[in-house]
Amino acid sequence: xxIDTNYINNPHFFDVLIIGAGPAGLTAALYAQRAxxxxxxxxxxxxxxxxxxxxxxxxxxxxxxxxxxxxxLNFFQQASSIGAKFIYGEVTNIxxxxxxxxxxxxxxxxxYSKVVxxxxxxxxxxxxxxxxxxxxxxxxxxxxxxxxxxxKNKPVAVIGGGNTALEESLYLADICSKVYLIHRRQGxxxxxxxxSKVKQHKNIQLILDAVPLSFDGDGKxxxxxxxxxxxxxxxxxxxxxxVFPFIGFLPVNNFFEKLNIKNENNGFVDVxxxxxxxxVGLYCVGDVVNKNIRQISTAINDGTIAAVxxxxxxxxxxxx
Length: 320
Ligand code: NAP
What we know:
This protein is of the alpha/beta class. 24% of the residues lie in helices and 28% in strands. It has helices at 5-8, 23-34, 68-81, 144-147, 163-173, 192-200, 296-317; strands at 13-19, 39-43, 56-57, 66-67, 85-88, 91-97, 100-105, 110-118, 122-124, 155-159, 178-182, 204-207, 210-217, 222-229, 235-239, 242-245, 249-251, 282-284. A hairpin with a 5-residue loop joins strand 14 and strand 15.
């Protein structure tokens, strides 16, 4: 396809626009940039995605243990140092007109591209209980590595039974005086190696078969929480200075509502084996993809495959 000269002469026209700068998006940026494409990536938060908020990563091959923020910074620096352009901003819409994508940000600006790779990830699922919104930032936190130091030698609680809740409990247990881990059943979703570390940690007290009912405070900050045993319905209270709900994530899909690429049942995006959506030239990678395993390693896999396929698509589809 011959590209209209209005696009070619526009400084805001790219080969590839990537939305989201987590491991999947930054890997796509790295591979696309190394393929000599003109690449930019958008991020509305700190680049690095969920890895930035992860205290320690122990299952990223090549690193026995690495700090999440350090790993995220390396991903970001590697992609940007070779020329992929970082655009700080929130994407609010994507449309496709005459084979070219139009990507709009919240400031009203529009950028154009031959390919778009969505790597928007997921956002924290909320408990939706009294006190959760009221005390956000005043003893309700969704980031242990960001806030643990504030609660040094203080009691805290973690809600959830997945990898995030258990890993962050371990991190908090070495800083805070006590960690109450509240989970709604006896079994955990987390990896066995993490479960066993949690069970052995003397600073972590498990409260199982329990759900939080409210986060309680004095109006200015949290002072405790009320929970209920799901079996005998008995209620209990604990005094804490901070609570960290880690009960999973929801896909960030609001800005591409009109494209109709979401899976009807769960809101994640269906893709083919090249991570292309049902719209040609539109790819989706990382945690927002409809898939079973969400790891840094799988995000990197997705970003690599999408970028390599995108290069092939651009070469075959557009005139040089
Ligand atoms: P997750 O695996 O979805 O676990 C969410 C946990 O929250 C579950 O234990 C769930 O209980 C509980 N939960 C959900 N809704 C709840 C509610 N309304 N009230 C109380 N509890 C509730 O989420 P995640 O731990 O954040 O992990 C997300 C993904 O990232 C997973 O694929 C995970 O493997 C991956 N991850 C991997 C690593 C790693 O490998 N190092 C680290 C972090 C995350 P039930 O179990 O009863 O459903």
